């Protein structure tokens, strides 16, 4: 039986991380496949790192402090992606990424696993993100315009907010070829999946609460103060997609 490797990258944002991890551990109790769950701490403050140690011990999940493995400054998404790709291929597991500003439901992970079985051609399958009122929100609000309430093929990029990456796809596209000059890789990776013959899906019935940019609040400036956002983006090299 094929298992899953589940990860949550974390950069501070402790309150959303607590909600994320606790909900995710509960949801993993409802799956029938083998799994591992690891929190990747990307240079959170010393105080928050101690909180993460206590939280992961309480929940009996693994914690990897990236500062023990690399001296590269945050964000270290590429380091994590390369590491977990190799693990997934070695263990013949699909990879599920749940970001720290997402809160899953009890059946979220089971639905991802089930739909992976139902769609063997998949590269990625994403749960759709919603706000507290259950309205689709960033980053899926534009991507899914015109979608109904079912699982739908998607040729636009798939966010990693709460997504499954099939091990079949992971075997076909080597993350070592990704550019280290970028910060985020969901656009590149999801487009590559389609390019090499896989189908990406958004499951509109699988809805997860998303509180965007909790770990990097300056990104809210894109809407509230776009001039300042783009000044930071280009002068400080932030948010390279």
What does this structure look like?
- The protein contains eight helices and nine strands.
- Strands 1, 2, 3, 4, 5, 6, 7, 8 and 9 form a nine-stranded mixed beta sheet that branches.
- It has helices at about 15-30, 45-60, 75-90, 110-120, 165-170, 185-195, 220-225, 225-235, and strands spanning about 5-10, 35-40, 60-65, 95-100, 100-105, 120-130, 150-155, 160-165, 200-210.
- The mean pLDDT is about 90.
- With about 240 residues, it is of the alpha/beta class.
- Strand 1 (about 5-10), helix 1 and strand 2 (about 35-40) form a beta-alpha-beta unit.
Question: Secondary-structure map with pairings?
Answer:
Layout: E1 3-10, H1 14-28, E2 35-41, H2 46-59, E3 62-65, H3 77-91, E4 93-98, E5 102-103, H4 108-118, E6 122-130, E7 151-153, E8 162-165, H5 167-172, H6 186-195, E9 199-210, H7 221-224, H8 226-235
Parallel strand pairs: 1-2, 1-4, 2-3, 6-9
Antiparallel strand pairs: 4-8, 5-9, 6-8, 7-9
Helix pairs in contact: 1-2
């Amino acid at each position: 039986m094929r298992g899953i490797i589940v990860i949550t990258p974390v950069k501070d944002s402790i309150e959303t991380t607590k909600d994320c991890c606790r909900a995710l551990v509960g949801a993993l109790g409802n799956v029938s496949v083998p799994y591992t769950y690891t929190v990747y701490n990307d240079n959170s403050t010393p105080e928050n790192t101690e909180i993460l140690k206590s939280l992961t011990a309480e929940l009996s999940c693994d914690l990897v402090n990236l500062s023990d493995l690399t001296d590269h400054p945050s964000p270290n998404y590429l380091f994590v992606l390369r590491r977990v790709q190799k693990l997934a291929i070695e263990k013949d597991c699909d990879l599920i990424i749940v970001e720290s500003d997402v809160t899953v439901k009890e059946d979220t992970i089971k639905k991802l696993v089930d739909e992976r079985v139902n769609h063997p051609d998949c590269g990625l399958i994403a749960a759709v993100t919603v706000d507290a009122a259950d309205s689709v929100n960033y980053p899926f609000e534009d991507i899914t315009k015109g979608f109904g309430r079912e699982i739908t093929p998607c040729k636009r990029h798939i966010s990693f907010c709460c997504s499954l990456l099939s091990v079949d796809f992971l075997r076909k596209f080597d993350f070592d070829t990704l550019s280290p000059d970028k910060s985020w890789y969901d656009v590149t990776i999801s487009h590559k999946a389609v390019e090499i013959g896989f189908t990406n899906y958004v499951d509109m019935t699988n809805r997860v609460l998303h509180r965007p940019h909790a770990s990097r609040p300056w990104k809210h400036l894109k809407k509230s103060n776009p001039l300042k956002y783009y000044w930071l983006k280009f002068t400080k090299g932030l948010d390279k997609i």
